[in-house]
Write a structure and sequence with these properties.
heterodimer, A: alpha/beta, Nitrilase/N-carbamoyl-D-aminoacid amidohydrolase, 6-stranded mixed sheet, 7 helices, B: alpha/beta, Rossmann fold, globular
Chain lengths: ~280, ~270
């Protein structure tokens, strides 16, 4: 199957303009016969929304823009990031998977970074689940940015049987390195390599670029195979539209070779977790 | 929008007292224009710091606002604060002799920054802290000169709309001739804020209150009875002036960056 990563630069708070960026990318992907196109986190709205959150929020069931996206998803699946008003006045940083004229799945960001330069918990409600869902390409799981940097979320998608992990991100770069790159980019790549290798899934990571209030989104989107091999990578900092053929057969190949999933012990983990939680001191 | 003037007076006065004590300053200084905001600020500062510790700077350009200069002098005299008149004409004219312009907004901004420059100089000579006099209406609309009249150390009236400052002024018994004056930025003769903005402060403040304080979406403000074009004009001014309310952006490069994640309170260890 063919995967495309749209490493775009959305305009902050201008959902109309961003809608057209999405449509352009969708057309471009269709021309290249792409099966799955992935946009970054909050691709429809931009990231540093603060008090604009409520102004750009959408209700997936009734929103006219979502209707158009559904219509565009007949022969191309795509994932985008948006602000979801799940209930009146309750906002989430969400990812929607469009396919076959439907929204197949919505993931609401669980781990909202609220430290240093981040203050997402101030503006968003917290999602409560990491679940897998069936796509035309097999079982998939989605995460949004900081979700991916937690072992628990990755484990849940592994236990849920995901074969493709899609991570959408608006990760600002930070820290010096010897490379022509931010030090923080290495962190995402390390996680991509480890998770793909040890959960034997494809890891498709799409980050954005551009500046917001001086925050520089680092780009460097990538695809890792279930063997932990990097097969595609976008440049840092610059816009890009990356298209790569992946072979779903790799999943079977690697899982036969090293049976991590067969030998996993979710019941033991679950019971042990309960004991840990019961013994918390407060 | 109605304030309790006794309570607000107390809050602002205490704020000035506490900020000066934290920053270790006894003396305060502010620009006196003979208008409402600087007069209200001067009263409250004189109460908080004592009139002897307050300096009012009156900084006219030529003779075009001589009535306001007189009002400012009278008011400073009445408050028993010290004041000084510094004519900014030589400095401003020196510049425009070499670089002439007919654009009165450019000239107005230059004058505002000339006043700022003098305020900072005198404040350093006198070891005094500058009190700003921008109100909430001006801050939201961006109706002020960045690094000009918006420059200050603390801004005591920044959360009060113009019409609320008028309520406070009545309570503080500010003289009628100041109270009833048409608000002006003093950029050129005959200029008034309301004329330039094209809207009365009473209407602007009511719209701002709904948009900002009550966080109402545009359509709800329209249905409350205000014309769409007025609301849109105000929203455009707010959106267009964000840069006046923020520090300039810095591109993030390192692990800890000023303005991003080097996070300390203004009142650090104070």
């Amino acid at each position: 199957m063919k995967v495309a990563l749209a490493q775009i630069r959305p305009t902050l708070g201008d959902i109309r303009k961003n809608f057209f960026i999405h449509v352009d990318c969708i057309q471009r992907a269709k021309k290249k016969k792409v099966d799955l196109l992935v946009f970054p986190e909050l691709s429809l709205t931009g990231y540093t929304l603060m008090d604009m959150v409520e102004e750009v929020a959408l209700r997936p069931q009734t929103d006219p823009m979502f209707k158009k996206f559904k219509a565009l998803s007949r022969d191309l699946s795509f994932v985008l990031g948006f602000v979801e008003e799940k209930e009146k006045g309750l906002f989430f940083n969400s990812a929607a998977f469009f396919s076959q004229n439907k929204v197949l799945h919505i993931h609401r960001k669980v781990y909202l970074p609220t430290y240093g330069m981040f203050d997402e918990s101030k503006f968003f409600g917290q999602g409560r689940n990491f679940s897998t869902f069936l796509t035309p390409f097999g079982k998939a799981g989605m995460m949004i940015c900081y979700d991916f940097l937690h072992l628990g979320s990755n484990y849940l998608l592994f236990v849920g049987g995901s074969e493709i992990i899609i991570v959408i991100s608006a990760a600002p770069g930070r820290g010096f390195s010897d490379e022509e790159a931010y030090a923080s980019s290495r962190m995402w790549e390390l996680m991509g390599e480890s998770i793909s290798r040890f959960s034997q899934t494809f890891v498709i990571y799409c980050n954005r670029v551009g500046y917001e209030n001086g925050k520089s989104f680092a780009g460097g989107s990538f695809i890792y195979t279930p063997g932990g091999q990097l097969i595609a990578k976008s440049p840092y900092v610059d816009e890009d539209f990356l298209v790569k053929e992946i072979h779903l057969e790799d999943i079977r190949r690697f899982r036969k070779k090293r049976p991590y999933r067969r030998d996993d012990k979710p019941e033991i983990i679950c019971e042990a977790l309960k004991r840990v939680i019961e013994n918390y001191e407060d | 929008m109605k304030i309790n003037p006794v309570f607000v007076e107390k809050l602002v006065t205490r704020f000035i007292e506490e900020e000066f004590s934290k920053l270790n300053f006894k003396k305060g200084i502010l620009g006196l224009s003979g208008g409402l905001d600087s007069s209200v600020c001067a009263v409250l500062a004189a109460r908080a710091l004592g009139p002897k510790n307050m300096i009012g700077l009156i900084m006219p350009y030529k003779k075009i606002f001589s009535k306001d200069v007189k009002d400012a002098e009278d008011f400073a005299f009445h408050l028993e604060i010290s004041f000084r008149v510094i004519d900014i004409s030589p400095m401003v004219d020196a510049y425009y002799t070499n670089y002439p312009t007919k654009n009165r907004i450019l000239k107005g901004n230059k004058m505002a920054r000339e006043r700022m420059s003098i305020l900072y100089d005198v404040s350093a000579r006198e070891n005094a802290l500058i009190l700003g006099t921008s109100n909430k209406t001006e801050l939201l609309l961006g109706y002020g000169t960045i690094h000009g009249d918006m420059a200050c150390a603390i801004n005591p009236l920044g959360d009060l709309y113009k019409t609320q400052i008028r309520q406070l002024a009545r309570h503080l018994k500010i003289p009628k001739k100041i109270l009833n004056k048409k608000p002006t930025a003093g950029l050129w003769p005959g200029q008034t804020d309301e004329g330039e903005l094209g809207l009365a402060y009473t209407r602007i403040d009511k719209i701002l209150y709904q948009l900002v304080d009550l966080k109402k979406p545009k359509k709800e403000v329209i249905s409350s009875g205000f014309p769409k074009q007025d609301i849109e004009k105000i929203m455009k001014l707010i959106k267009g002036s964000e840069f006046k309310r923020k520090m300039p952006p810095i591109p993030k490069i390192s692990d800890r960056t000023v303005g991003h994640d080097f996070l300390y309170p203004f009142d650090r260890e104070k």
